[in-house]
Design goal:
Elements lengths: L5 E6 L3 H12 L4 E7 L2 H8 L6 E5 L7 H5 L7 E6 L5 H6 L4 E4 L4 H29 L5 E6 L2 E6 L3 E7 L2 E6 L6 E4 L2 H7 L5 E5 L2 E4 L5 E3 L2 E4 L2 E4 L5 H10 L3
Parallel strand pairs: 1-2, 1-3, 3-4, 4-5
Antiparallel strand pairs: 6-7, 8-9, 8-12, 9-10, 11-12, 13-14, 14-15
Amino acid sequence: MESLKLSCVIVDDEPMALNLVESYVEKTPFLALQKKCSSAIEAMEFLQTETVDLLFLDIQMPDLSGLEFSKMLPKSTRVIFTTAFDHYALEGFKVEALDYLLKPFDYAEFLTAANKARTWFEMVKGSKTEAAAAVSEEKEFLFVKSEYKQVRIKLADVLYFEGLKDYIKIWLKDNPKAILTLMSLKSLEEELPKSDFMRVHRSFIVSLKNIDVVERSQIIINNQRITVSEQYKPKFLEFINSNSL
């Protein structure tokens, strides 16, 4: 398995604590800092548009505590709590925190907690990758839950998937109305055949077989323009170049 890199966010209302954890993250090769936040509300706004693996989350903060905030997170985002109060430990584990760091903590303690997170993600992502690799190229359809029904979606008919927070719109050929299902775009991406579908934007996965035109940084599918964002452009350009005359 290739080396795992965990995206992370630090949340703490104390500037010195923020800077200390940032210095620890920067010296840890398998951690990639996405943002420092001085409140849970700031972090919540960031996570509405970005997917993060791990939060280093202070518990006692004004307006919204770390414990309250942790209950709002998607299951794919895990938490290591940081706090100066040891009586929060039991509550921290009740919300399935990966670990609990009692301030003041040194780098050795931080690294032990970070390694727990790495082990957990390697186990989960490794099993998902192996399972997806075994079946992804054979899939011709998916069943998705929509309006209390399990709807069979033929993958050859899919034009693109559009992510809307916790929901996905599935746009199909000859169907002017999208099918709406409760699912994250990230979890869907793991289930799709890599040879047929590609993530090109935070909010879009497209059917490579149904692209009509590529114009600069935009894909046109069934008269719908979809922008290829910078993050996904290298992989998409590689696909275009390998299929060009």
